[in-house]
TrEMBL record, chain A:
WD repeats: 118-159, 244-285
PANTHER family noted in UniProt: U3 SMALL NUCLEOLAR RNA-ASSOCIATED PROTEIN 15 HOMOLOG (PTHR19924:SF26), UTP15 U3 SMALL NUCLEOLAR RNA-ASSOCIATED PROTEIN 15 FAMILY MEMBER (PTHR19924)
Keyword Nucleus set for record: yes
Gene Ontology biological process terms, A to Z: positive regulation of transcription by RNA polymerase I; rRNA processing
Disordered: annotated segments: 503-528
Domain named U3 small nucleolar RNA-associated protein 15 C-terminal: residues: 345-492
Name of the protein: U3 small nucleolar RNA-associated protein 15 homolog
Keywords: Nucleus, Repeat, rRNA processing, WD repeat
One protein family per Pfam: UTP15_C
From TrEMBL, chain B:
Sequence ranges of the WD repeats: 53-95, 245-286
Domain WD repeat-containing protein 75 second beta-propeller: residue ranges: 341-661
Any Pfam family: Beta-prop_WDR75_1st
Gene, per the UniProt record: wdr75
The organism of origin for this protein: Salvelinus namaycush (Lake trout)
Protein name: WD repeat-containing protein 75 isoform X1
Amino acid sequence: MASFKSTKIPIYPKLGEKVTPDTLYWKNYKAPVQIKEFGAVTSIDFSPLAPHNYAVTASTRIHIYGPFSQEPVKTFTRFKDTAYSGKFRSDGQLLLAGCEDSVVRLFDVSGKVALRMFKGHTKGVHVTDFTSDCYHILTGSDDYTCRLWDIPNSTELTSYKEHTDYIRCGTTSKLNRDIFITGSYDHTLRVFDARVEKSVMTMDHSQPVESVLLYPSEGLLVSAGGRYVKVWDLLKGGQPLVSLKNHHKTVTCLSLSSNGQRLLSASLDRHVKIYNTTNYKVVHNFDYAASILSLALAPDDESIVVGMTNGVLSIKHRKSPEGKQEVAGKQRRRPVYRVFVKGRNYVPKNDDFLVSKPVKSNLAKYDKQLKRFNISKALDTALESWQKNRKPEITVAVMKELDRRGTLKNALAGRDEQNLSQLLNFLIGNVVDPRFTPVLVTATEMILDIYQAVVGQSSVVDRQLVRLQELVEREIDYQQELLEVLGMLDTLFAASLPRKEVPCPGSSRPNGLAEGGLGAPVPQLQAA
Amino acid sequence: MVAHAEIRVVHRGGSKINFREPVITNDSRFLLCASGESVKVYSSSSEECVHDLQGHTDLVSGIVRNPSNHLQVYSCSADGTVRLWDFTDGILIKTFIIGYPIYSIYVSENHGGVVFVVVPMANDKSSELFQLVAVHLPRSEDQEVEARELSAVLCDVRPSGAASFGREGEYIAAAKGLQLEVFFFKKQKSYRFFLKPGNKKWAKNAFTCVSCHPKEDCIATGHEDGKIRLWRNFNQKKEYTYSTLHWHHGAVNTLQFTPEGTNLLSGGIESVLVQWRYTQETQMDFLPRLGGAITHIAVSPDGSLFCTSHSDNKITIIQSCVKVSAVIQGLVKGEGVRTNLMIDPRSKALVLNGKPGHLQFYSLHRDKLLYNLDIVQQEYIHEEGLDQFEVVRAAFDTRGDWLATVEERTQKGSELEINLKMWAYDEKTQSFVLNTTVTAPHDDQITAMCFSPSPETTMLVTISFDGHFKAWLLADNSDTTAEGASWSCDFVGGYHLLKPGCCCFSADGSLLAVGFQEVVTVWSPSWELLTTLSQPPGAIRDLCFGRLSCSKYLLGTSTKNQLCCWNLLTCSLEWSTPVDVSLLQADPLSENMAAFCSQSGCSDLFVFKPSEPLPLYSQRALCTGKVQHAVFAPRDQMLESCEEHAQWLNRSQLYFLTQHMDLMTFSTKSEEDRLLASSKRLMVDDSVAVTPFYLLLGKHRQQQEALTNPMAERIQLPQGSIAIKELLYTPAHVLPSASFLCSMFVRSLLISSSPAREEKEPVEEEMESEEEDSEGEAELRDARQDLGGSAAWGPGEELGAPALTKAQERELRRVKHFDHSWLSSLLEC
């Protein structure tokens, strides 16, 4: 005697992106905090010191925000024109900023007035950075020069005029105080050594370079410009390693996650893409409301700060793990392990008479009804379960089972107004879902057949029927459009596929195709 | 053809066991059922087949217990004989020749020496009308007896299952159509009762079965519409009454009263055994979901065991209507084999679709169903006219790690539902576990599928009428998700929107050939169309790559009587012959190919190598009808046959299914000899369990009997020492009790004379004479009497006799009896 086989609830494949450890990690951020700045946010820099404040450069000001503050903890306003590139020194004490008025200013983080002013550039300075020994600074300007300055006496040490266009990005080596890299709108990246007169390495990005980034090991260099993100191997003399084209507008900013395993790129197309640095595949993607100009990650990825062209600063904080523990603590206390194993490991004695108890199988409610052939009740139960937890799979599976048994019509018949409207509600909600359509269309047809005679007696049901009709009509139009698109695509594919001649050896006349036959056969390929 | 005489087509396994009602023996230890041309005796507790009673030359059509001897059964057959068997030993006792094909047999305790058989009215097989006749079995000593004393009892009865004896055999009731006929033997008069045809939709009144109450005057009848009527007061024409019971929603297939008449059992298509309490008919017990539709119910004489036969070739043994205690399952053949025959590479079992929604694994060597694999995993609703999922295709990969199945459900007025399922072999549970389900893999029926034999990739190709073939690849995504590997579609191919019909991988998996109507396309593993081959007219029906040394050849058969062989190196036709090949099968272990050809209603077999168009072996008129399914099953051990034409059977055996769903195979002379020898050995082993005790006594006697010279006394001592040796070297826990052994041991040391025995002899002789008759082997009897008469016959008996109880004595005599049969077989050889 076989036991009753329960109704199979099909597991539908989850559409959309797959859940990977990366998605879990990067989704584990709270809803973003939005702060309105005065103008487009061009640069964000985190302080390396413990509270990890960050400097946000927007318009003519630099605001410094605390890690969880909505208001700036400090503001620097002594700029004559648009400020650029607010940068902390590695000890977090000094802040450096360029300006459209060609003057570079150095501030004490606690002070207000500029400690030093570096004058010499003739055009706006977009790039500033401290060298690794903390005593020099690097600047890059729209006057095509990049210069090194001495902080204590604010004098210019060297000037390099090798770029032939605006210098819009640059970075210094964290390991060697003499080496720095600049990127320019003349499509080149240049590596300079302060100890020699000329650049030591030049790489052609072939797009105006918007951002450069050195790996912590400083063996690899990442540059962004145009729609491309390119990775260069510095140890192999600047050989290009990979070229990524995942954005459809200019990539503006690059950043590395705290462990150096993930590379982030922000673009004017309002996306932030996260790459795996071992295979350079996109593992995650953030969407923002406006084009992104700047991006920074707090140490340990505690927060992601993004600045946009409309002046909105968006801060996402990582969800704290303590929150989860609290939720777990609130959960009902489960019975202890001992309760479950009670009596299970009892060993019967020799003269004990054993009464074996048949193993009871747990059937779902609708299965119990199906087992007894109570078809209407089974359908009712299934509908109830849909109302309770909104899982249409179960209801559809029960309907399919009833259809298989040839009793769906009987189960659908004989319902009053309330029952029928509940049923119609379900159909309206799910009939156009491609996963359920084959089953639900039959059910809908049956309902229309059965209740044809009573149409017009209840306003509720009538209204739902009209809704259903509209829904179906809309779906048909939609399908029509899709078919048209498919037809267009087919033509395009057919045009783009190379026509390949199949070898038809002349010697195989008896078994090959007749000469006037089908002509050159073309394999028909279809997207899987 | 003379040279081929020694390869025979033999019937091998998988015969029907649900053809007629099974019989449970009086002691409930055995169950007998008709199975093709033999009667099978199963042990009701272990489900094993104990004996196969062979002797009939046509279909066995009924078995009944001999009411006068509880160790014997009668069986009847379409060959026109009734045979009496001793089922404990599997011996044919007597054959009664009736002379007409018999369709069923009935007996009653109160009609001694008479059996009632159903024979056709006119004396030919094709007649549609049957009559029930009483046959007086003549008492005669002969082995074969002509029983020509027939007297008609009832005219116009159904060939089976519609007659039953009433209380104390006073009357017999038979039903056919809308008429119930009761014949009273004393009055020699019959009454007929009619029902209205019932032309309403749900009232089909025709009788389906009948059963009489064993103690009271009551007849239960089952009807087409699921009703059961209980007839009473039927010993007159007018004032009969009946009450109606209704639970079944389909026709009642069978009814049976329990021996005491307290319960009525009924079964039908619902596969629910219903137990009605007699006189309290509102109370019912149910035993649901037994399997296929119930076709017969049998009850043991003491009422403790029931057994039900099911339409899916199964017998279920039920203990007192609550618990299924055993299931005897034959090969399920159903309405047709939808999947091809396959061999499971692991268990070497034959695999085909069995129960609805299941695949069955059938061991060919043991002729036993190993297990059923539930493919559909849905509750089967036993109702007529319902479209349910059926397994239509299945394929194994070369190592047996993967199984792919296709299930299909066609419903009137709605689209085809197809599921493709991939099953992975689980080492831990030793069975297949569902890995991936693909709903609607194709838009139309899947016509063929095959796994790639290449060891690097696990790939499946499915071919469908929707004009495409798809390649499915096992994608190992275990690094991203915890679910492990699953299957996904890798490639969709087609050729000019033609409908593909068949596909085949080359032996190394480097080429895939797909037949698109007249055109054969050959694809590389990177899905490039390499070449096309064609031999118009006629669509390609079957494709097969050559193996081993012939792997450069591709064979194809077309609908227009063409068998072609292409050379893939030159892409040209090597040879072709005009034969109508219905099935082409390649031996996986050799280069040989088997082609079944249909010619004027018969099937011929040709075995050949692709390299030469001359057959290695051919057999004309194999069987009637087309052979649609065949498979090469690898042998356990290679045969070393040196004859050239039998060499193709050395590595593997060819099994095929005929139109009538009989499983046949080819066997060679040497193989048959070997089988015969082993079965002989088995029979000897069967008769006496090989225990140390048996060895002790058996050897003891064997030696004595081998030396039937008057000098027997002289070798008493060495024989005794052997007994001592046996005694000393046998583990103590398997020895009989010491009190029993002691006397024997002591006596074996003594030199004894045989005085006390003489008085006992005549009595014994008498008792044995019955059995001797039953055995009926003249020379055996002679041999035994010789032995019995001689002085040497005694000692074994003599040794034990003084210390033995009556029961032990009888047991010993039985042992002795077996010994002789064994000895005689030795002598024959």
